[in-house]
Amino acid sequence: MKTSLYFYTGTGNSLWTARKLAEHLGNTELIPMTFRGYGPINPKQDNIGIIFPVHIWGLPPLVIDFVNRMGVDPSKYYFALAVNAGQVAATLLQLKKLLLSKNSDLCAGFSMNMPSNYIPWGGAIAQEKQQIKFSAAEEKISRIAAMVRARKNIPSEKGPLWQNIIFSFFYRKSFPHIHKMDKSFWADDKCNTCRICEKICPVHNILISAGRPVWQHHCEQCFACLQWCPEESIQYGKNTKGKKRYRHPEIKLQDMLACVIK
Ligand SMILES: Cc1cc2nc3c(=O)[nH]c(=O)nc-3n(C[C@H](O)[C@H](O)[C@H](O)COP(=O)(O)O)c2cc1C
Ligand code: SF4
Ligand code: SF4
């Protein structure tokens, strides 16, 4: 059984999840998702996995665009891992709906609870707490691999009904503004013009001008720029200074840079 795993990641949680799943499945290729402007995607394998972070209780725009450009075939097995920090809400139902609108289906949708990278709501949790999440995730990934290998049809995981109603409302409200939410990013005086933020942005939304990053308003809100800045120079609004940055400890800067589509 050959599998293609398409992934998108800001701080490495989804990349780590994809790698672990690939190890369990064997015979699996890992492919970074292309973004708006790239042509159609025509997966060759019969098993297609989509692995991505949950943003604002729903699918990131990049993932929607990717799925819209993906050629689908109802005979293929589609599954997804929505990597989150405890609130998957209705994200996987949204993906299922999207695939159904293309005359296909999400055969299985799994929620992966990992450490949060949404720094405006809090810095990285303690390493011991991170390890507890990673161990639980690893155990779940081995169970997911068994289900995927058997091509099981499983109802998509979701949050409680009240959350799905309220959070999906917030998602719909904020969705049209996501690309411009980068207006809250800024770099303080610690910036040494290393250009890592420019290189790591998965959608090339940052240009360096006069020695400082300038955000171009087609942001995906993945927070890679802020979290990977080696000087902790990048801030979001007023309350991220001094908060502990988060990156998956087994994912290195080079791994992230290798995922960026040129
Ligand atoms: C803009 C933004 C919004 C987020 N929204 C949610 C959310 O709605 N629910 C949740 O559980 N986690 C949310 N998170 C946390 C991430 O989904 C979580 O940390 C994920 O594991 C990050 O994966 P990555 O390292 O592959 O990017 C959000 C993170 C960001 C940056
Ligand atoms: S990664 Fe940080 S230090 Fe490097 S250019 Fe960007 S803001 Fe400046
Ligand atoms: S500008 Fe920063 S938050 Fe926005 S997509 Fe690029 S790396 Fe992600």
Radius of gyration in whole Å, from Cα? 18 Å
**Widest sheet, order of strands:** 2-1-3-4-5
CATH superfamily of the largest domain: Flavodoxin domain
Assembly type of the chains comes to single chain
> Mean pLDDT score, rounded?
97
Order of helices and strands: EHEEHEHEHHEHEEHEH
- Share of residues in helices: 25-40%
> Which structural class do the helices and strands define?
alpha/beta
Just name the CATH architecture of the largest domain. Answer: 3-Layer(aba) Sandwich
What is the CATH top level name of the largest domain? Answer: Alpha Beta
Poorly predicted regions: none
Biggest β-sheet, characterized?
5 strands, parallel
Strand content: 15-25%
The count of helical stretches stands at 8
Give the overall form.
Answer: globular
Distance between the termini: 30 Å
Give a concise summary.
This protein is of the alpha/beta class. It has eight helices and nine strands. It has two domains: 3-170, Rossmann fold; 177-259, Alpha-Beta Plaits (2-Layer Sandwich).
